[in-house]
Amino acid sequence: MPETAAIDLAWSTAADVAATVAAGSSTAENVVEATFARIRRRNPLLNAFTAIIEERALARARALDEAGARHEGLPPLAGVPFAVKNLFDIAGLTTLAGAKISRDAPPARGDATIIRRLEAAGAILVGALNMGEYAYDFTGENVHYGPSHNPHDLERMTGGSSGGSAAAVAGGLVPLALGSDTNGSIRVPASLCGIFGLKPTYGRLSRARTFPFVASLDHVGPLARNTRDLALAYDAMQGYDAEDPVCGQRPTEPVAPLLDRGSEGLRLAVAGGYFRTGAFPEAQTALARVAAALRVTDEIEIPEAKRARAAAYVITAAEGGTLHLGRLRTRGRDFDPAVRDRLIAGAMIPAAHVAKAQKFRRWYREQVLALFAKVDAVLAPATPCPAPLIGQQTFVLDGVELSVRANLGIYTQPISFIGLPVAAVPVPLAPLPIGVQIIAAPWREDVALRIAHALEKLGVVRANKPSVKGGK
Amino acid sequence: MKRRSKTRRKARSQPRPAGRGKSRGKPDAIDALVMASAQALALPVDPAWHSGIRFNLQLVLTLAARIDEFALPDEAEPAPVFHA
What is the total count of domains within chain B? Predict the structure, then answer.
């Protein structure tokens, strides 16, 4: 493929790639070849990919091109390259989940359900992506595989744990990636890397054949450079899956056709109280810009959000520690020490605390759901600050020096704790972008994505193209 | 919004459960919990890991105390698996 075409495709949207392939202006094979060329050129800088899947991707691309040549209707994501956090099973590859220990596991027998669904919609899987060990991470750092690097400043964190997913999308390697979000692991890296992310309602998308972390908090979802691509991917992945015990038995509710409705008629408010404390000026500016663009003046308090974050922390530590107890007994030295110490501590939490946290969780859910009688969506910061430096251990929030690793998710944890859908949207501040959360009621991903799309049209949120050394 | 204070504190980075003082060199309740739990769980803990585990356990217990102090009725149902 000519190099000029590769340059053009580097920042194309998934929708544009699919339209190009459907129109015959490019073949899927050319798109995939260009994608691998970009990955080879830029990945040494970003460390986003842990595996690339050339043979399978090219075979699928050629099959799509042959279908196109036969004038068969192509599916909506035909030829769109995508990659997945390496906790998703990919047939024939070992599922690493960011861990050294997992290298000894046998290759996966089949693909994760939502990989299959994206491929059924014509998208083409090109590789597996770096992540924090066992997803217990907000930084994007990994002692075994190296940190993923933020495309806007290679010395800075991507955020995690879906760090490779965000780096690959923000760095122009792929237009679409999948991540997982237990406490913020899609929204935090989307914020720090300046892209869009969707954490759907708990139970909306199947987690079948993904490596778990905290069963009662784990979500999966897409990251992209615009709202429409999020919606197209999300629509393709929806649907009940008996292989995930918590996947909701709900009909598919396509969102892409609804995006142009915008925010008209929706009641919005900014989250007050807890969400107004601790933020760096950049996070406050980003939120203010979004609120002003939408003409939102109302503020609403999410009750006991600080306590909700504490409860999410306790449940995460306890469930995570329990999940890994066997490996901690036999392979403790093979963990990232920072992850190991947190998991061991989690396994030691007295059960009384965990049971109380689960009781509090239901109480909190009832209080928050009541708010949605008054508003359709709530705006809140996604992270307290733009991307910290790789290796940075602490930052100061509200005058208190705190661990970066444990606290990048202070604004995301109280939301995923009760499974609410959230679109994270990037505000392109200079020199570093930062995200805002658009939080909706359960099963109302359409509301969050409509508002995200409206903000894009207003020019307030945008995934800016970084100038990555080594390739434009 | 503003940051409330420019004075740095380390209150939450080194939390201490109420009523349990730790004098240097003497194991306190958290140290004892780490050691007893490791034994009860048959979990080998290298002595070099102890301080990291202790720090994280103390942090999580401090957060747990915030939930513990929140009054809920006996009838409150837990949400071990959340359904939205």
Answer: 1
